[in-house]
Amino acid sequence: MCIICGIWMYVLLALSPWLIYHDLQTVPNNNRTYLVCINTMDMVQMKIYHIIVIFFLLYAGPLLFIAGCYATVAYKLSRRSNRQADFLRKSSNAHDKKQMSRLVKMLATVVLIFAISWLPLHIVGILFYVSRELKLEGSLPLIQWVGISNCCVNPWIYCAFSQSYRDNFFNTLR
Asked: Domains in the chain, start-ordered, CATH in brackets?
């Protein structure tokens, strides 16, 4: 629970300048008024904030954290399964190695899919502040969708790599 609260505090702290540097304004348009959120940071502040905070703290940092956590999990499981195989002598080493190989591939796939799905959005964000002439408004919703869709991909990755997860997952859906 503390880890979850810590993650939320980390993100809220990193994004708090948006609360400070955005202003809600009314804009008239064709007999209607719209509320629009306007960024009040100057261009240099926006560049620094986007590159340092958004890219490094909210993409590269979590990516390294996830990769580190999964590498630790894979390492500890490999040590545990080796000790259990020596102790129990129930399963063959070839079967254990195959399961460990599938687990490592699954964890690497999860990290790689996270990196691939969120990287385009961050590249576009950085390019936007580097070159204001870049026109990507039409493709931005698609790029955002690719990043956000990462949230629903992990269960399918787990299904692809684990028969027991797949069985339980589809039993739950019935």
From this structure: 1-40 (no CATH), 41-173 (1.20.1070.10)
